[in-house]
């Protein structure tokens, strides 16, 4: 089936499945669409940023948007028609519906969460314990971060989030969260530094740091394994040629562990020297003692990994050096 025919069939099938899917309105936006309406223009800009990392008032690509309403609350699910067509080509209509159903279900679940009511109240106290920090690649998210709270670290960004839902049934660990807008912090009337420190503390409590010497140790480790920051830890030093992995107990967004207070300094004490850091994904970082490997070799391996795995997992394309003398992290230009 040609692309244009697929689009026509998609619109027809979406109308037929409207009740089954449980959405209220469908909008189809063609490539090149623009608008004089500020709300529509905002959607076009956000869509270009989300899918193309580009700021433009002219839509790039074709999109289907499904709207759901609950009272005055509006939630939308966007679908890039080109991506859906590729799903169709590789797996027929079944693959297309799986993606659409999954997104609509997640959207509906988000609408029903208590967090939406708390966000609308613009109060700090009920949200304080739900704040956490997540690492993202800065270049991949630079436009969407403009109006949100984050700290820049080289080519990475540590981003302030509010935890909406955290479900773990032993097989799947699903987390729903939302970035914190700058306007919310201003409304709260709390110093940003205080909010940030509280969020970092929450993140540490939710997911304590772990250090594993062997990649196999990452597979369902017991809670106490790799607890190198614990007072009674049995990790008292690191062999010079060790290539440990640093993550968290949950391993979701585990690279944030490197930015917990005291973690970088403690690792330097364990190595007894400066060390290189390769953020091999949002979930982990791998370490090399300085002098045991050329940083350019680390960079080549890192770039290979980033090309191999899902781009959404990429955190950094740079190698970093932690310097013991000044206790600072430095991005290397190689």
Integer average pLDDT = 90
Strand content: 15-25%
User: In whole angstroms, how far apart are the ends?
Assistant: 47 Å
Most strands sheet? 6 strands, antiparallel
Could you state the oligomeric state of the chains shown?
Answer: single chain
Helix content bin: 25-40%
Task: Work out the number of β strands.
Answer: 13
Gyration radius, rounded:
22 Å
Count of runs of 4 or more consecutive helical residues: 10
Output the structural class.
Answer: alpha+beta
- Could you give the order of the helices and strands? HHEHEEHHEHEEEHHEEHEEHEE
Described by the principal axes of the CA atoms, the overall outline is globular
Q: How do the strands of the widest beta sheet line up side by side?
A: 8-9-11-10-12-13
Write the layout of secondary structure elements.
Layout: H1 3-16, H2 18-21, E1 25-29, H3 38-52, E2 63-70, E3 73-80, H4 81-112, H5 114-121, E4 131-137, H6 138-141, E5 150-153, E6 156-168, E7 173-179, H7 182-188, H8 192-206, E8 209-212, E9 245-248, H9 263-271, E10 275-281, E11 284-289, H10 295-308, E12 319-323, E13 328-331
Antiparallel strand pairs: 1-2, 2-3, 4-6, 5-6, 6-7, 8-9, 9-11, 10-11, 10-12, 12-13
Description:
The protein is α+β, with helices and mostly antiparallel strands. The chain contains ten helices and 13 strands. The chain has helices spanning 3-16, 18-21, 38-52, 81-112, 114-121, 138-141, 182-188, 192-206, 263-271, 295-308, and strands at residues 25-29, 63-70, 73-80, 131-137, 150-153, 156-168, 173-179, 209-212, 245-248, 275-281, 284-289, 319-323, 328-331. Strands 8-9-11-10-12-13 form a six-stranded antiparallel beta sheet. Strands 4, 5, 6 and 7 form a four-stranded antiparallel beta sheet that branches. The chain is globular, with a radius of gyration of 22 Å. 26% of the residues are buried.
């Amino acid at each position: 089936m040609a692309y244009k025919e697929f689009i026509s069939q998609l619109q027809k099938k979406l109308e037929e499945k409207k009740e089954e899917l449980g959405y209220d309105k469908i909008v189809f936006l063609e490539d090149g669409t623009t608008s004089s309406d500020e709300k529509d223009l905002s959607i076009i800009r956000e869509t270009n940023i989300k899918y193309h990392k580009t700021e433009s008032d002219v839509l790039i690509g074709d999109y289907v948007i499904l709207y759901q309403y609950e009272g005055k609350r509006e939630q939308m699910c966007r679908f890039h028609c080109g991506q859906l067509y590729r799903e169709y080509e590789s797996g027929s209509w079944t693959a297309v519906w799986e993606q659409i159903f999954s997104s609509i279900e997640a959207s509906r679940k988000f609408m029903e969460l208590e967090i939406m009511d708390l966000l609308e109240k613009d109060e700090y106290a009920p949200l304080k314990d739900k704040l956490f920090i997540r690492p993202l690649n800065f270049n991949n998210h630079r436009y969407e971060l403009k109006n949100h709270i984050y700290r820049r670290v080289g080519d990475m960004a540590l981003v302030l989030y509010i935890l909406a839902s955290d479900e773990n049934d032993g097989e799947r660990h699903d987390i729903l969260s939302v970035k914190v807008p700058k306007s919310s912090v201003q409304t709260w009337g709390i110093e940003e530094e205080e909010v940030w420190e509280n969020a970092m503390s929450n993140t540490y409590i939710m997911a304590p740091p772990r250090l594993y010497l062997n990649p196999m140790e990452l597979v369902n480790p017991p809670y106490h394994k790799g607890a190198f920051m614990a007072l009674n830890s049995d990790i008292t030093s690191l062999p010079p040629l060790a290539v440990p992995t640093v993550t968290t107990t949950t391993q979701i967004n585990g690279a944030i562990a490197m930015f917990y207070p005291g973690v970088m300094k403690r690792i330097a004490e364990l190595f007894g020297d400066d060390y290189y850091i390769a953020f091999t994904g949002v979930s982990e970082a791998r370490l090399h003692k300085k002098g045991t490997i050329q940083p350019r070799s680390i960079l080549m391996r890192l770039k290979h990994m980033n090309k191999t795995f899902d781009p959404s997992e990429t955190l950094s394309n740079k190698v970093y050096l932690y310097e013991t003398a000044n206790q600072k992290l430095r991005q290397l230009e190689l």
